[in-house]
Write a structure and sequence with these properties.
Blueprint lengths: L1 H16 L1 E2 L18 E7 L2 E7 L6 E8 L4 E9 H4 L4 E6 L2 E6 L1 E4 L6 E9 L3 H9 L2 E5 L2 E5 L7 H9 L1
Length: 166
Amino acid sequence: MKRLVLIAGLSAALSACGVLRDVAAPVETGAPGPQAGRDWIYAADGATGRLAFGTPQSDDVALMMNCAQGSGRVTVQANLPQELAGSPPKLTLVSGTTRATFLASAEPSQLEAGNVFLTAQTRVRDPVLVAFRRNGWIGISRGDATDRYAPQPGTTAVRQFFAFCG
């Protein structure tokens, strides 16, 4: 009986965090190379830190993360085709051999017709973000494929962001 109560409590805790673990799906493990003209960009504005992957000084942003300084909490945002968001909407992140699926809110994208802007909440200690911090790259699962985002050589943006977030 104690074991059943413990399992129910753990399930409730994971549900409260909005994290669903996807352990059966294969994970791409090879580190991707950098994309021409795209990189991780870090910016701090007062007590808010932002990390975005895209083309500097443009509207091209594939993935963005925000946090309040020292909070340990991260908001992850991505622009995906409606059919990949799911119902309820989910955002699946991959880094190395680690994968996490987060429940997300969805709003129509202002950038691309037929897309939705997904927003999910997590913590800097989530295993997929720990893997991202360690290896420098993260990806968004798009069904059968994963878009993977790696830094340009010498980029310190990922390290700066996680140091800021706590």
